[in-house]
Design brief:
The chain is globular, with a radius of gyration of 21 Å. The chain is built from eight helices and 20 strands. The protein is about 20% helix and about 25% strand. With about 350 residues, it is α+β, with helices and mostly antiparallel strands. The protein binds flavin-adenine dinucleotide.
């Protein structure tokens, strides 16, 4: 019997195993690989109106089921284009399928700065605005000028300004119900050139660079971030994980004061609006979960916020552990932990 190809079946969808950084087994039945914007009308026509679909970059922030029945668009668009450049800044459009860390390296080498603190985050450029990736005191939204999307409701390309994207901590329009009908095609960054560039060194791990701020270069910040991340976070190629499994809970000043009476060493960071961000890893550690396993999965021994798939666990194992951790944190601190990756289980 001949092997069925997209041509012979007259469908642009394939069945495909979805590699993911949590190493969960996942077979998707209908996958469309988007590697050229000219294929968008074909994709639009192939999706049944009203039927749900999923968009995947590199699956580094997903908890996937063993079988994904929805139609899946795998974003593989490539390209980097300089829109405008002068002595102090550059406007660059990067296609959604470009690997994030490679783009950070390219920008650094070209003298376009502002992304150094976001080095070594796995994933694609197109996924970065979705949860407004952030690390070491910087969020990607600070450097975004606009985002180009394919709007499945309109069947057309639209350009969304930074304000349109409604960025907040680990949030954006793309996480809201209507935003999930938008496929990000490219992201336009406004980056700074030296000497206009200013380092962001507020995060504790970068404080030692701050002592010598006049000598700090973008390369030094990049190197420091890469080295700290390599030391603190398990490499998903060796120990499957999705980075932080929970968001840092944002609470009121009164909650922090009350908790500090019982836990004087509570870790909390004051936010610009007066609220406080608690360190979820600290809460999890205090509940005794750091380095502890539940079946095939566990919380990492160096970073309690990172859930690892130690021994070929399944999505159900991941969710059972997440649930146990959430319950313990709620019971001990009265604080709700929200899951950070997208759970499609
Ligand atoms: C070791 C490790 C460390 C990490 N550290 C950080 C960190 O420091 N900070 C941080 O913020 N995150 C971190 N993450 C999480 C992850 O890297 C980011 O969320 C990343 O942006 C996900 O990219 P992706 O291409 O893998 O997206 P996926 O996991 O494929 O998708 C994530 C979400 O984005 C949507 N999506 C993807 N591409 C598109 C597109 N083109 N258009 C519309 N929607 C799209 C998906 O539908 C899904 O909802 C880490 C993950 C790992 C494994």
């Amino acid at each position: 019997m001949p092997i069925q190809t997209p041509e012979s079946s007259k469908t642009p969808f394939f069945a495909k195993t979805i590699p993911n950084t949590l190493a969960l087994p996942c077979q998707a039945e209908h996958v469309f690989v988007l590697d050229d914007e000219s294929a968008l009308p074909v994709l639009q026509a192939a999706l049944v109106p009203g039927e749900s679909y999923k968009v995947i970059g590199s699956a580094s922030n997903l908890v996937l089921p063993s079988h994904l029945h929805d139609r899946v668009v795998l974003v593989a668009l490539e390209g980097i284009e300089v829109i405008q450049e002068d002595a102090t800044s550059a406007l660059i459009t990067v296609a959604a399928g470009q690997p994030w860390h490679e783009w950070v390296q390219t920008a650094l080498a070209a003298g376009w700065h502002g992304l150094e603190n976001l080095a070594l985050i796995p994933g694609t450029v197109g996924a970065a605005p979705v949860q407004n990736i952030g690390a070491y005191g910087v969020e990607v939204s600070q450097n975004i000028e606009y985002v180009r999307v394919w709007d499945f409701d309109a069947g057309a390309i639209r350009q969304l300004s930074r304000q349109d994207c409604q960025f907040a901590y680990r949030k954006s329009l793309f996480k809201q119900p209507h935003g999930q009908r938008l496929l990000i095609l490219s992201v336009c960054f406004r980056l700074t050139k030296r000497p206009a560039w200013r380092p962001v060194l507020s995060y504790p791990d970068l404080k030692e660079l701050a002592a010598d701020e006049a000598q700090v270069t973008p390369q030094r910040v990049f190197d420091r971030v890469v080295s700290v991340r390599r030391h603190k976070l398990p490499d998903p190629m060796e120990i499957p994980n999705v980075g932080s499994f929970f968001k840092n809970p944002v609470v009121t000043q009164a909650t922090v004061e009350s908790l500090r009476q019982r836990y004087p060493d509570l870790v909390a960071y004051r936010q610009a609006d007066g609220s406080q961000k608690l360190a979820a890893g600290w809460l999890i550690d205090k509940c005794g979960w750091k380095g502890r396993r539940l079946g095939a999965v566990g919380m990492h021994h160096r970073q309690a916020l990172v859930l690892i798939n130690a021994e070929n666990g399944q999505a159900a194992d991941v969710l059972a552990l997440a649930d146990a951790v959430q319950k313990d944190v709620l019971e001990m601190f009265g604080v709700t932990l929200d899951v950070e990756p997208n759970c499609w289980v």
